[in-house]
Amino acid sequence: MKIYTSFEEIDKDLRVLRLQKDISKEEIKLNYHGIKEDLGFLNVIGKTTGFILKRAFALKLVKKLVG
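User: That's the sequence. What structure does it adopt?
Assistant: Structure tokens below.
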């Protein structure tokens, strides 16, 4: 536990805590928007399509090499 000797020390710590709180809020907003973008319909469809195409290409390549 910190012991304060003046109101200036208290005010300084309160300012620091407010700034840390504001930074945390902004980080949450950025994370939210990033997740929202990552889970967007077109993004999910695009990634899924890309995944399927890569697998199909790999399967064709393996079939050519083996057979």
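The chain has one domain: 7-66.
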